[in-house]
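In the current project phase, our protein records have gained a structure token line. A sample record follows, to show the layout:
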Amino acid sequence: MTKWKLPHITKPINIIVGGYGSGKSEVSVNLARTLVLDQDFKNRPISILDLDIVNPYFRSREASVELEKLGIEAINPEGSEYYADLPIILPQIKGVIQNAQGTVICDVGGDDVGARVLSSLETSFHRKSYDMFLVLNANRPFTSSVASTQKLIGEIESSSRLRFSGIISNSHLMDYTTADTIIDGIKLSEAVSKEINLPITCICAETKILDLMTKNKIKYPVLPLNRSLLKPWE
């Protein structure tokens, strides 16, 4: 099994956002899981905040039990608000951001609509050092070209009043993803990166796909994915 170079996460606040169907919740969960097992983050608290108000099916809150078993603090709406799709900003969430200890991962709802929740937390983010990453799936209609991706980036930045730090290439076709799917996604991410001068932070792919690939096909850090968020009917 190939040992990949993991993404270099340096800021206390890490905001994961992308268009609908980008897979950003799965990325958020796997990033938290990877960091808590990384020796470089040993004894550093890891938290994940569910700020997804858009997608009722794939949200990081669905993996809360698993994450908490690993020692990751999962902060989500509770009780009757657990399945709500309203912009609920818990006081606890603001507190975690303002007083961030260790590393905080924010799972934010798809596109500019979901990113609006960030604008209410803008002051809190700017008080701390943050990175905001665009999760890019080349197989979604609003991120299938450089122009459409650039448009989405502008909309999210305008809506959130925050600026992107990097691109996370996460091209997939769910169960029909192949190595070629990943490579094609990298090509689009590289084109976007070149056009707007935004670096590629890492490449994501399920471990079963990565096992079929070699390092010479991917020159970027890699975040291996193990699916945690299943569709309700699975």
Q: What stands out?
A: The chain has one domain: 20-225. The first strand starts at residue 13 and ends at 18.
